[in-house]
Design brief:
35% helix; 13 strands; alpha/beta
Length: 251
């Protein structure tokens, strides 16, 4: 009996060693073309990149990329019920995220404005945008310039969930401008061309606000034993894969 118990324990320990640690990375479910759900599948540039990187972590780690609403995911990071999230920018307003991964990609944040606003030349920010309402994606802190202008009362910010909702508001002139990543905006606009509410709608870019590096952000309140090792291995895998998958996803 003792020998049988010893054999069972050895088998169980061996299974635990070789099965791999399961790690869940939350991802924005509504940020096409970077990370989004379509027909029940999690897709996008970051999903493709991290799936390839995750393959390099096997068998030590089995990584699951799980789509979730952005604001809910941030709340989970803050309270420590989630381990990590992609793709946040590095923001001092989120002290509960630490550390960050190596850079995944550099997004370009621009202002798109409706046709009425664009009748006047808008070249300087925030001077040429005083009093305007600018749409942003809920939970996203896109640009320090944008936040500073809002805090100073020079502009107003209006939140909506995702690019599609904000582009519709822009087309219907419910907001003056929309601040978002250039690639994400053009991708979504192409998908919305068949929408009857958006007939003849064209994106008009006013100016570029900033370049925004994106990362995997890890919760400062979630500290499993494997955290340091996982981050080191994932960083190395991301650098091995590099940015080419990201750029190809936007073509």
């Amino acid at each position: 009996m003792k020998r049988q118990l010893l054999c069972i324990m050895i088998v169980l320990c061996s299974t635990a060693v070789f099965a791999g640690e399961k790690v869940v990375l939350l991802g924005d479910d509504d940020y096409a073309p970077y990370s989004y759900v379509e027909n029940g599948q999690f897709k996008g540039m970051y999903v493709e990149l991290l799936n390839k990187a995750s393959e390099l972590l096997k068998p030590a780690y089995e990584v699951e990329l799980k789509p979730r609403p952005w604001k809910r995911s941030l709340a989970d990071l803050e309270n420590g019920t989630a381990f990590a999230l992609f793709p946040p920018g590095m923001k001092k307003e989120r002290p509960y995220i630490a550390p960050y991964s190596v850079v995944l990609y550099t997004e370009t944040v621009v202002l798109f404005c409706n046709s009425d606003v664009m009748k006047t030349s808008r070249k300087k920010f925030p001077e040429d945008f005083n009093g305007l309402t600018i749409g942003v994606n809920a939970g996203f802190l896109l640009s320090g310039r944008l936040i500073s202008a809002a805090n100073a009362g020079k502009i107003s910010l209006s939140e909506a969930k995702g690019n599609e909702a904000n582009l519709k508001k822009l087309a219907l002139k419910r907001i003056a401008c929309y601040a978002t990543d250039r690639g994400a905006a053009f991708y979504t606009a192409r998908k919305l061309q068949s929408d009857p509410d958006l007939t003849n709608f064209k994106l008009q870019e006013a100016l570029e606000l900033s370049g925004e590096d994106t990362f995997i952000g890890y919760s400062i309140h979630s500290n499993p034993l494997y955290k340091t090792d996982f981050i080191e291995k994932m960083n190395a895998a991301i650098e091995t894969i590099g940015n080419p998958p990201c750029k190809q996803a936007l073509k």
